[in-house]
Design a protein that fits this description.
CATH superfamily of the largest domain: Dihydrodipicolinate Reductase, domain 2
Shape: globular
Strand content: 15-25%
CATH architecture of the largest domain: 2-Layer Sandwich
Radius of gyration: 25 Å
CATH topology of the largest domain: Dihydrodipicolinate Reductase, domain 2
Number of domains: 3
Strand order of the largest sheet: 10-9-8-11-12-14-13
Number of strands: 21
């Protein structure tokens, strides 16, 4: 059985010989109802899932099991009524009976004198429902709802099926590494246009020791195939491209974890300002959840569209947000200097990132308005309750991976004496203890220890430490992380674990 929150049992009762209970997985009805959509929209979504289950072969859509009719969306399945009842998830039973007139209004059945009830299903019913789905999404987004999923309350022990789109880049490669060894998932699809036809072991020989790597082949990305194969799809694609896959996959009821910037921002206008083109799917922005587990764990748990944060923002937000929320620092005058390994630029042929250009070289870039500023200021502004402007300067350093960030912050209260300094230091320590004492992937350093990339590379851990400077009156906070793990793929897998109800450390320690 696939993961399911609320199983929907459908019975075709017009013809007793053809009564067949069908469990529909990832039924969009659960998402729409939990998002507060009116019952009429829920009914339409329920019908959409019914159509996929009864009019199409299970192998074609992946929405239903137990349907063994020929794999064609033109299959003439006659029925009189639909009975659906809900399990846990709503906290109460929901009974809906949908009759032929409702199906006719939606264009899903037509008159057929040869059918027992006088009606038969139309070909390609999914096409009739696409516009209704878009309307439902828009209405939910307008009301500030996020898309829900059913994986966190799954009752089956079968592995969750995972696909990675863009698996040949650095973040994609790291996802492959983490998910091949994850105890609760099965990696069923990896896509890459340039690597299509090759096995994972051929493209990444380092993974050849894993049996699955020798049989799993890269394929061309195909949305329909991905929706049929996987429960969760990771998008390790450039910004602007991810949305092309996210929109139909979310519409198909799949959980999407996007590593690009396409759904990190709540404002399409801010996206256009920083990324220099119109947002490709603004209707989904309001429903996406920013995938910073230490901050948005509860929202991630029920989401079907998770925007995994950028590497620099993670290194800045985790040290700063607790202090800002506690009122220990001023929201103005925040300065962040970050240094990143070359892998942060992605796997691409670009003169600026050739060995001879990067080796023995340290240089700033993206000054004064790096794209990551948009999500950094967005999240700090939410914590501060008003606009926050940050001075951010990223630097490229000649290492493969790792980010070190130094933050210069203004304490909310000035400290002038040794006693005041000690008191503020204790408040900061208590603030971080309250925020991260139980967090498995944030390590707050004590004593004289300072963050070091060598201690976090290859892990999903962020280190942080702080110092108060009595001369300048500033608070200096430092952090270190692996830009590909905690700054990208590891954090995305952390969100996967939350979504599916797995231990949060599964596959990451």
């Amino acid at each position: 059985m696939y993961p399911s929150w609320s199983h929907h049992k459908f019975e075709v009762s017009a013809d007793p010989a053809r009564i067949a209970p069908v469990v529909v997985h990832r039924c969009s009805t659960a998402s729409y109802w939990a998002a507060g959509i009116p019952i009429e929209a829920v009914e339409r979504a329920l019908l959409r899932s019914l159509c996929f289950g009864l009019f199409a072969g299970a192998g074609q859509t992946g929405f239903a099991r137990g349907v063994t009719d020929r794999a064609t969306s033109a299959h003439p399945c006659d029925f009189h009524k639909l009975e659906a009842w809900r399990g846990r998830g709503l906290g109460r039973w929901l009974m809906r009976v949908v009759r032929i007139p409702g199906l006719r209004r939606l264009g899903l059945v037509t008159r057929d004198a040869h059918a027992p009830s006088g009606f038969t299903g139309v070909a390609h019913p999914d096409r009739h429902m696409e516009k209704l789905d878009r309307d439902v999404y828009k209405r939910a987004a307008a009301r500030g709802h996020s898309w829900t999923n059913d994986l966190s309350m799954r009752t089956s022990n079968s592995p969750v099926r995972i696909a990675i789109v863009g698996a040949s880049g650095y973040s994609g490669e790291e996802l492959v590494r983490l998910l091949l060894s994850h105890p609760h998932v099965e990696l069923v699809a990896v896509t890459s246009r340039q690597s299509a036809g090759q096995t994972v072991a051929q493209v990444f020989p380092k993974f050849a020791g894993h049996p699955r790597s020798r049989t799993l082949k890269f394929t061309e990305p195909d949305v329909a195939a991905l929706a049929a194969q996987a429960d969760v799809v990771f998008l390790a694609l450039p910004h602007g491209v991810s949305a092309e896959f996210a929109v139909p996959l979310v519409a198909a009821g799949r959980v999407v974890i996007d590593l690009s910037a396409d759904f990190r921002l709540r404002s399409a206008a801010v996206y256009q300002e920083f990324y220099a083109h119109a947002h490709p799917a603004p209707d989904l922005l309001a429903g996406a959840v920013y995938g910073l587990p230490e901050v948005y764990r509860d929202q991630i748990r029920g989401s079907s569209l998770i925007a995994s944060p950028g590497c620099y923002p993670t290194s800045i937000l985790l040290p700063t947000l607790p202090l800002l929320r506690a009122g220990l620092i001023k929201p103005g005058g925040i300065i962040a200097d970050s240094m990143s390994g070359v892998s942060g630029a992605g796997r691409k042929a670009d003169v600026d990132y050739l060995f001879c250009e990067c080796n023995e070289s340290v240089r700033a870039y993206g000054v004064p308005k790096h794209r990551h500023l948009s999500e950094i200021e967005q999240e700090l502004g939410i914590a501060a309750g008003g606009p926050v402007t940050v001075q951010f300067t990223p630097h490229l350093i000649p290492v493969n991976r790792g980010i070190h960030t130094t933050l210069y912050l203004a304490p909310a209260k000035h400290f002038a004496t040794a006693a005041e300094l000690a008191g503020l230091d204790q408040q900061i320590a208590a603030c971080y203890r309250d925020a991260y004492a139980d967090e498995p992937f944030v390590r707050v350093l004590e004593g004289k220890a300072l963050p070091d990339t060598k201690n976090v590379v290859g892990t999903n851990t962020l280190e942080l430490a702080w110092r108060l400077d009595a001369r300048t009156g500033r608070l200096i906070v430092m952090s270190a992380e692996d830009n590909i793990v905690k700054g990208a793929s590891g954090q995305a897998v952390q969100s996967l674990n939350i979504v599916c109800g797995f231990p949060e450390t599964a596959g990451l320690v």
